[in-house]
Amino acid sequence: MNSQKWMSQHYFIFFMAWGIFLPYWTAYLVHEKNISIESASLMMSVGLVLRGISTMFIFPLMTAKWSQKVVLTIFIIGSFITAILYIPTYNYSAIFILTALLSFFLPAIMPGLDSTAGLLVQKNGLNYGRARSYGSLGFVVSVAIASVITAVTNDGAMLWMVIGYLGILLLLSFKQTPQVLLEKPQMVSAQSSFKSILTAKNFMWVLVIVTLIQGSHAAYYNYGYLYLEHLAVPKYLIGIIINIGVVFEILLFAVADRIFAQWNVAKLLILASSGAILRWFIVFAIPNPWVFALSQALHALSFATAHYAFMIFLTSTMKATQITKAQGIYSAFALSWGTAVLTIVSGYLYNWAPNYAFLAMVLCTIPALIASIYLKKTMKTI
């Protein structure tokens, strides 16, 4: 099986489901399940905590017992079944439980795919940037479809789209798989323990920086859709505006391996944190839909460059046996727990004044820039 094709297909279909869950799920809970913004924020925050647990502990623990392919399939099945259970459910407590379960299963697929990509980079020479750009393309396609369908019908269509995409991803699980992903895990050694990873040279510095940068997307991910509604943007245009960011993300990933070939990780993190500061300040200072749309171009820096920097750090400094756990740590802190804390903070500020949610994001990215500059000056090896 061609590794590049396999990875690209899985990224594409997974991110079609992610293209609904990430930007739209809070709005889905509010509009279709009659959940208040505060309660939906709490649900998503609890979900982020569980997401961190599943990606940092459960997924790596399972890959220590079974092959990468088997573990990915288990999480895909869990996501698919949970999504189906939403159909008849309107009870608050039941929705809370389902949101927690979906947040446990679905997001774990992403670091699972990234750790899989890391193995394929090392073993099969995978071009990570090119494969990951298919994920971003899937996100764009999904958001575009959602914009049209929800404008014609209602936000309830979001659930059916998630179910459909997860069904396709499940079918893909039965296709031929690269041999390295079918191999049973090697015996766990001290070199692949959490302690060995956390104490590895520069790991904690890089982790703190990417946690601040990626966490700063909390207001955008959870309230971006609602904020654009607040700015009186028509539903069909909201999807287009959200897609602008992902288009620039695609462009970045497509050329990253070439244009950043001579860049070290610290320099990439300086670029990412600078882009994040500029992006959130513009959105805060000028609450205007056209300005918001223009700021979306900076997603290539605030998200994609930070993510690419960590993947480069991972594949260039970690052993193959460490990649899954290191990816889990990154996903737990940078993409889950940090975002969970800032979701609560930004939710409080959003209720006070919607644009102030983005001011909090500016304040958390300034330390990331300072730390990145310090990293560049003192640790020249990366």
From TrEMBL:
Q: Which Gene Ontology molecular-function terms are recorded? A: lactose binding; lactose:proton symporter activity
Its record classes its membrane topology as: Multi-pass membrane protein
* Cellular compartment(s): Cell inner membrane
Tell me where the transmembrane regions lie.
12-30, 42-63, 70-88, 94-113, 134-152, 158-174, 203-224, 236-256, 268-286, 298-317, 329-350, 356-375
Question: Could you confirm whether the keyword Ligase appears in this record?
Answer: no
For this UniProt record, give its keywords in alphabetical order, as a comma-separated list: Cell inner membrane, Cell membrane, Membrane, Transmembrane, Transmembrane helix, Transport
Q: Which InterPro entries match?
A: HcaT-like (IPR026032), MFS_assoc_dom (IPR024989), MFS_trans_sf (IPR036259)
Q: Which residues form the Major facilitator superfamily associated domain?
A: 6-358
The molecule here is called: MFS transporter
Provide the Gene Ontology terms for cellular component: plasma membrane
Which PANTHER family has this protein been placed in? 3-PHENYLPROPIONIC ACID TRANSPORTER-RELATED, BLL5896 PROTEIN
